[in-house]
Amino acid sequence: MKDTWKRQLLDSGERLIHIECDDQGSRRLRESLRQEVSLGIVQRQEAFYEEMKTAEYLRFFARLFRSVCSVETAMETMRLSAQAQTPVGKLDFSQRRRLAIAREMLRQPQILWIEEPLLNLDETSRALILDWLEQRSSLRVITTTMSLKLLYLLPGAAFTLDADELVELNNEAEVLPPHPGDKIPVKLEDKILVFDPQEIDYAESVRGKCRIVVRGNEFITSSTIQELEDRLVRYGFFRCHRSYLVNMEKVKELIRWTRNSYGLKLKTQPDVDIPLSKGRVDELKRLWNL
């Protein structure tokens, strides 16, 4: 890993840093930082002592870390007090993720490193983690994720690991003028497919490449996100984020995760969260006559 990456992360004044990268990139970044600072690490896939009860598990690590932090406080922060006497093996996926974070809080690291902090969490746990990051955590936290959508939900500075460069992402939406729209061509191997605007759920731009999503299937298009907005705004598409354009006919719900973090739920893909920039919330409410 380049030393410039390391210095960029360590010298940043940001308390919360989030990085879009794959598993290999996350591992390289993590192992490089471990040479410089103490890390508390929550990996994407965690192993647990399944037979231990939740409180027992945390007390074990508190002793191992010689922690001065309160186990009870860590459980309360991650909303695990009600599961104190539950065997770890009986916890659901979201509870186990929160348990892993509580464990690493007891380590009192200089930086808490969390891989995929929101992936596959239930809505209650997702809201809890976002609120903890934004309002309550006094720790310096770095997270990594392969999902750009989830990255944009997280409060703090956003980066992408592009080849050998750590590139900062702009989380603010752009307002662009409307223009006529029409059918959208995409390439699928040696075929050219054409979609009506009403078929498209949303479009997203990742590292300069734009893809549209139709019934959960992704297709690469040669158009930029700006060009798509120019063509689709008349069909009810809304630029909810710098990198996202959503078909408002497909939107089922506006979710406020925390004071500064919003998302849109789709009728067609209930498990998908589309980021909504804070600066576009009022415009969305005007569209909905709220």
Describe this structure in words.
It is a single chain. This protein is an alpha/beta fold and 290 residues long. It has 2 domains: 3-169, Rossmann fold, CATH 3.40.50; 184-287, OB fold (Dihydrolipoamide Acetyltransferase, E2P) (Beta Barrel), CATH 2.40.50.1020. Helix 3 packs parallel to helix 5 (93-106) and helix 4 (71-77) crosses helix 5 (93-106). The chain has 9 helices and 16 strands. The strands form 4 sheets. A 6-stranded mixed β-sheet has the order 2-3-4-1-5-6, with helices on both faces. Mean pLDDT is 88; it is low at 172-181. The longest helix is centred in the middle third of the chain and has 14 residues, at 93-106.
CATH architecture of the largest domain: 3-Layer(aba) Sandwich
Count the strands? 16
Task: Identify low-pLDDT runs.
Answer: 172-181
What percent of residues adopt helix (DSSP H or I)? 25-40%
Structural class, from helix and strand content? alpha/beta
Q: What is the CATH superfamily label of the largest domain?
A: P-loop containing nucleotide triphosphate hydrolases
Q: How many domains, in number, for the residues?
A: 2
Principal-axes geometry comes out as: globular
Distance between the termini: 49 Å
The CATH class label of the largest domain is Alpha Beta
Q: Please, how many helices?
A: 9
